[in-house]
Each structure stands twice: as C-alpha cells, then as structure tokens.
Amino acid sequence: MRRPSSLRNAPALLALDFGPRRRRPGGLGWLTLLIGAVALVAALVGAWSDYVDVDERTRIVERLRAQTRAAATPVAVPAGTDGSLDAGAAQAVAARLNADWAGVFADVARAQAEGVTLMELHGDAARGSLRIVADTPDLDAAFAWVERLQQADGALRAASLDSHAWIEGKGGAAVRINATASWGAGR
To answer: What is the reported pTM?
Structure first.
C-alpha cells in the first residue's frame, strides 16, 4: 500500500505494545521438563516401595509380639512355698546393687597425681574388684600412684600393679599401667 504523498516524510508508526513477546519453549525447555517428570516418577516409586517395606515389617513385628505373648509361660513356683523370695538372697542382691561407688571414686580421686591419666575403670561389685587402666609419664609415677591407692582409707584396699607397657603418645613416651584393687562386697 502506498502512502499518500502528504505523509511521505512523516515518521514511522509507533509500536505501543509494551507487553513482552512470548517466546515458544525451545527443545532445552522440553528436555528439562521431561527429566523433571522422570525424576518425580522415580521418587514416587521409591517412596511407595519404602512405604510397602515399612508396612510389611510392622506386620512382622506385630505377629512376633503376638507369638511371644502366646508363648510366654508363667514362672512355676515350687510346691510347698508361698512364692516369696528367700530373705538372704534378696539381701545379697540388694548389697550388690547398693555398692559404695562414691567411695570408690573418692579414693581414686584422692590418689590422683600430676601426669597420671585415667583411661578406664571396670568395677565389679559382686566380686569386689576394680580394674584400672591409666597412663603415667614414667614407672616411678606409676608406682607412686599405686602406693597412694593402697594407702586409701576409704572403699579401696589391696591395690596392686598387674602390668605395664611403654606406649608412644602425642606428648612422647608414656607408661600404660593395669592395676587392680579390692572394694565393696568382696571385703
């Protein structure tokens, strides 16, 4: 279409459409959507599998609990007794449970010296024994520490050094000692 001669030198028409032009999605966009959909389906299948597995395990646990309850038999009471416990046996158990742990820890703390590092304490109230593993800088410190344990006037008695070994640590060479002591019910 030709312009009239009077508009020939007029400026071009203005495009007043300020909205962005919408581009059609490209191949990369469709590929990303496809990958996301596949990942979603895989996650849902995995979640469903986990749900079924947990449900099956719950049913197995419930079945085992029911079998355990059914198989549990009451404790038989010997004939001629009223079912009460022997007082002596009950007192022996109570004495083992009421061991003087505070006294043991107090004696070990009183014997503590510079450079002695406690590594393990294994107490057996039923036997009245305490096994101690500690690190000392040298043998003289080990002997002095065991001597202080022997002189403790509290719960511990008859402490002795059972074994020792030289070990290499961060601060240099040290002596790892194993000591035992008697205490509590075993007195």
So the answer is: 0.46
Q: Do the beta carbons of residue 155 and residue 100 sit within 8 Å?
A: yes
Other residues' Cβ atoms within 10 Å of the Cβ of residue 129: 17
Question: Using one digit for the tens of pLDDT, what is the confidence trace for 137-185?
Answer: 888 888 888 888 887 777 777 888 888 888 887 777 888 889 888 876 5
Sequence-separated (6 or more) residues with CB below 8 Å from residue 77: 83
The full set of domain ranges for the chain reads 29-70, 100-186
pLDDT tens, position by position, 65-109: 998 888 876 655 555 555 555 677 766 666 666 677 777 788 888
Alpha-carbon torsion angle 83, 84, 89, 91, nearest 10 = 160
User: The domain 100-186 is classified under which CATH number: 1.20.1250.20, 3.40.50.1700, 3.30.70.660, 3.30.1360.100?
Assistant: 3.30.1360.100
